[in-house]
Amino acid sequence: MGLVGGGPGAFIGPVHAMAAQLDGRIDLVAGAFSRDPARNAEAAQGYGVAPDRAYASVEAMVAAEAAREDGIDFLTVATPNAHHLPAARAAIESGIAVMSDKPMTATLEEAREIVALLADKPVPFGLTYTYSGYPLVREMRARIAAGAIGKVHKLVVEYNQGWLAGAAEGQQAEWRMDPKRAGLGGCIADIGVHAFQLAEFVSGHRVSRINADLGSVVDGRVLDDDCQMFLRFDNGARGLLMASQVMTGEGNDLALRIYGETGAFRWSQENPNRFEWLKGDGGMEVVRAADPTLGPVALRGTRLPGGHPEGLLESLANLYGEFAMTLRGEPGSLVPDANEGLRGMALIERAVAASREQSGWVDFIV
């Protein structure tokens, strides 16, 4: 694995590094961690990367690594959104696989460019929609596909944070509110796409229409920090998506409720090792992580006996483990791909435009 980003003070880069190496299937051996030479060297030392494999740029890294017999097998992109396309392009054109943080790019047009590049030079491409790696998220997906709650007719997904309720201070906050680095969307791009992808991933249905309301609660912000939208799915189901980073006091409250004809599932990321199965007769069953009745995909992503909490690192590690399977030619990966990334970018662009123009209901066409 080679890593782009993740220099001193970064949040998500070190998380990727820890998760990728959790199961001993992947080694971080190279990186372009920072444009600043001193910070780049500092990061390399912290990650245990040899000094001669800490590169000044992603272009230098992929050129050098592609020429090595022991060069990297894939590149992880963990930078602000504006740098996703250049890094992915450099890797793809060198025949190196890509694992990218979300959203896939800064704009929809850039996302289309990546899809076109992959059509011309096919290499494995994955997106770290981290929450799709949770074992019980996958179990809900499998049970819905098997008809456990009947036809899905209502879906509610919420992603509530409060860390931007005040001034955007510090490296992590500032770039997310900067259109030059984040792209068209603020909250919708940072966490709204997570909620959107989770809804489609678990339900098995695609959004076909949206009615979006995005805005900035904190004065002076150009990008949205609060959003909500009604959804209509391809099977006729109705949905509601709410994502906000100004809900004072909230941590990382991603929650999903899916209602079908005969039952419903409720799951929360802040308590991810269980979900509730509501029955049509008024009863309720609690499904727990590591339960032997879980399906093979959920059990494959579970490392510890029941009652021992597993969380975000393990969920992301499941995606990395499956990406390694793909690189080895093994089937069974559920890692989100470039097409899901394209849908996420389309959501950002369509929602921002529809909200600004107060369009009401609009068709969601990718």
TrEMBL record:
Gene Ontology molecular function: nucleotide binding
UniProt superkingdom: Bacteria
Residue span, GFO/IDH/MocA-like oxidoreductase domain: 137-265
One protein family per Pfam: GFO_IDH_MocA
Domain called Gfo/Idh/MocA-like oxidoreductase N-terminal: residue spans: 3-125
InterPro entries per the UniProt record, alphabetical: Gfo/Idh/MocA-like_OxRdtase_N, Gfo/Idh/MocA_oxidoreduct, GFO_IDH_MocA-like_dom, NAD(P)-bd_dom_sf
PANTHER family according to UniProt: CONSERVED EXPRESSED OXIDOREDUCTASE (EUROFUNG), OXIDOREDUCTASE
Protein name: Gfo/Idh/MocA family oxidoreductase
